[in-house]
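Lab notes, practical 5.
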Amino acid sequence: MTTPERAPVHFLLRGRAWERAQRALEAAGYAAAEEGAASARVAFLDTADGRLGRRGVRLLLWRQAGGWRLRWRDPSGRQEDLCRREGPPPAGPVVDGGALGLGDRASLWGGKPLIWHLEGRVRVRSYLLSTPSGRTLRLEREDFVPPGSRRVLSLLRAWAPGREEASSLDHLEVLLRDRAALPPAGGDLAALAYGAAGRPDPSAPSLGDGPLTMEMPLALAARRLLCRQVSRMEAFLPWALRDLHPEFVHDARVAARRARTLLRLVGPALGPRRAQSLRLELRWVAGLLGKVRDLDVFLDGLGWYVRELPPGVLPPRTVLERLAEDRREALQDLREGLSGRRLARLLERLRRLVLSPPPKRPRGPGALGTGDAARRLLRRQVRRALRAADSLGPAPPPEALHRLRILFKRVRYALEFFRELLPEEAQECIEEATALQEVLGAHQDAVVAVRRLQEAVERAAPPPEELLASGVLLQRFWQSAEVARGDLEKGLRRFRRSWRRLRRHLGEPAGETSAPSLP
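Output from the prediction step:
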């Protein structure tokens, strides 16, 4: 059986530690051959919530004379240059990863914008290390100078190029730690660079990163699940306020909405009154973010339709200017609302809740095992959503479809919250719930767009030559709503089939008749 690949090892180099390491390696029969050296300005890239770092991946933008390159490091320590370009690098602090031509790699960060979280100067010396047993390892000495500082942070990184060399890396780690007395670094260069610069590592673990288990009391699982959403909200909100990319507003809003839904689902396990109070405050946050996000979605769709106007039809510039002004006002309201003490108090309350220890002897819903609670919650949420779907008439009003969208949003979120405890059939159910939610969302967006466009035309009072374009655009939005209505029935059928398959694998929770109830 082959030895599995393992993560690289990192040691701090202080004083004459590098000389000690070289002497210890030579005495133990290792031979190090220098392969090369490089020096460059480096920016550490990741999403706002550290998606790459959480997967053990580091993405570095190297800026050298005449050009730049993107360097990718995977969890095993191997690295490669994804692209090399001449000329100046893309302007920061936000970079569109898809525009860099990274292909399938972009799926690792979900197409989200990448951020220059930290810049500094890096010097690297690379070595090929031959072990006494004839295997080959790799060493790199990395020196990092934080921005605005002369302090040099030195790190020795060693990794195995393949599975067969992993056992040799274990021996090397013991040698450097015990004979050369090198202190373990406790992280890679990026993690130490963030610390040296006084910046938070976006991928640093939090309480919410711990796994859920079937037997875990719901009171503990609820805190862990809520911590995940609070961490995401805190990561995205500063960038949303800077308005550097529409996705930051979207992601901050989604985190706030997920936190609200979670408090609705598991509120009894956290304290009903506290959960209700926090839900109201999160509704305020999501509302401010929603005004900006809804205008972003509307303006994006409107822009697409404007570009497709028939020849000879003038774009409604007066209306577009009025809508752009609405967006600026919504952004100003967002900044004023979320820059004060109210948001700070809310985040502090949420932190205290997720960090508070659960009761040693939880009662009521908090005493339920998370596995049983998840099954109960899923059945209840799906039952409510499907009953609402069954009650739709042949021509349901927009309000009924909007309500159905909210119910399926809760179904989807519940499935995603407890995904790690569910059988593999849950993934298909999540996908179908997501597709159905998107259909209902497209209908709601079109209905809101019609109303918003009509109001904008009334307020802007465009000249007669622009009215024709407004009429064409209204018609396009109505057509989009009709297409969504036509896709609804098919989406419901697909979800019902996936739910039936998942339900067969869920089984019956223990103590169904006597266990405490959940909302």
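Observations recorded by the TA: The domain at 9-196 is CATH 2.40.320 (Hypothetical Protein Pfu-838710-001). The longest helix spans residues 464-506.
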